[in-house]
Amino acid sequence: MLVLGIESSCDDTAAAVLEIEASGRPVVRSSVVANQDRIHATYGGVVPELASREHILGILPSIEMALGEAACELRDISGIAVTRGPGLVGSLLVGLMCAKGLAQRINLPMVGVNHLEGHILAPMLEHTIAFPFLALVVSGGHTALYLVEDIGRYNRLGRTRDDAAGEAFDKVAKLMGLGYPGGKVIDQLSQRGNPKKLRLPRARVKHAPLDFSFSGIKTAVALHLQDNGASIAANDLAASFQEAVVDMLLRPTLEAAREHNVDTIALTGGVAANTRLRARLDEAARSEGRKLVAPSFKYCTDNAAMIALAGSYRLLRGERDSLGIDAEANLPL
Fold it and tell me: Is residue 329 part of a domain?
């Protein structure tokens, strides 16, 4: 079975062709992602109206490229999986309307996919993972812990109460004048810095030990820069900030793993590409006899292969959504 995946929840226009072999093993035949970083860098963050306009321009070329790289045509596709939420509603509508048009044109089954489910299952594009497992989803828009009991059965154990971790990286990078997106730049700077140079607060949510909060550390960096300017080198400040964020992600994750006695922790989402987070969580998991799995960097950020995978399970069960489904900016998982 070949599944066409379409993803346009924020500022990445993505299309992919995923093959599900007779054994059930997923094989990514193609994965195309057109990002808009250059456009939004001027504004220091994603501008929703600009993002949706770029999706309109890029969605069909991305699909055509994905089909070409997979050496197939639309008539070879068995079904379409498209992100319907959560995300920026204008961006979501572009991908969803395109999927509806294609599905109607050649009478293909189509399913709407929750973007977070795509991230949760992304490690399964490359790894065989036994259920149940713990998923730490860390991105620019989301930071949450899920107990994954099976496909379609996701129990949220903890969430951020304010900023997502990736959002905190971008905001601190902006405060430091590092540009947008900031996560990769901070990661690179940190590799040449001293993570103990500046002691920054590690927030914990009272009475909710598995929840996260990152607004305080962002404020702490802002106050430090206001009071001290460039008294600390940028690489040391970046390393100190990054270490604090990693500490705040690790503690609830490990507590949840112990509480639910899971053998595997899946790290996924855009911030899963952070080298320090991957290294420290892997080390911590190993020390407790657990295993860390994470997607390749190309499947950490928003992509359509993960959407195709999530949708494939529903398509294999014979499910399909009507052409009346709508985009939902705050679609619950």
Answer: no
Give 66's Cβ-side CA count (13 Å radius): 33
Question: Are 227 and 308 members of one domain?
Answer: no
Summarised one tens digit per residue, pLDDT across range 131-182 is 999 999 999 889 999 999 999 999 999 999 999 999 999 999 999 999 888 8
How far is the C-alpha of 273 from the C-alpha of 138, rounded, in Å? 10
The pTM is what?
0.94
Is the Cα dihedral 273, 165, 10, 149 positive or negative?
positive
C-beta of residue 28 within 8 angstroms of C-beta of residue 305? yes
Kindly state whether residues 87 and 150 are assigned to the same domain.
no
Show the beta-strand stretches assigned E in 98-225.
Answer: 110-114, 133-138, 143-150, 153-159
Q: Which domain holds residue 312?
A: 2-121+301-316
For 200, the 3-state DSSP assignment is coil
Q: How far apart are CA 224 and CA 237, in angstroms?
A: 10
Q: What is the DSSP letter of 297?
A: G
Nearest Cα neighbor of 293 from 133, 101, 109, 107 is 133
**What whole-number distance in Å separates Cα of residue 193 and Cα of residue 202?**
19
- What distance in Å separates the CA atoms of residue 171 and residue 47, rounded to the nearest whole number? 15
- Report d(CA 308, CA 313) in Å as an integer: 9
Distance CA 318, CA 147 (A): 26
